[in-house]
Specification:
The protein has 64 residues and is an all-alpha fold. The chain has one domain. It has 4 helices and no strands.
Length: 64
């Protein structure tokens, strides 16, 4: 993914996290955003690779 696309993705996730009052999602989004803004490509790839696990954890932690 291009860095600009990753930045936009992170900003969208952060917005969702703030609106949904989900601090773990906001934290994850800010991590990706930081990686994108500093061009830390290896870290960015690593954190993006964790997205499915983050979604699964959020689903498990969500109130029913």
């Amino acid at each position: 993914m291009a860095v600009n696309e990753c930045r936009a993705f992170a900003q969208g996730l952060e917005s969702l996290g703030r609106h949904g009052q989900c601090p773990p999602l906001v934290h994850y989004a800010r991590t990706i955003l930081r990686d994108a803004e500093t061009y830390a490509v290896a870290d960015l790839e690593n954190h993006l690779g964790q997205f499915a696990a983050v979604v699964e954890q959020l689903a498990r932690d969500a109130p029913e």
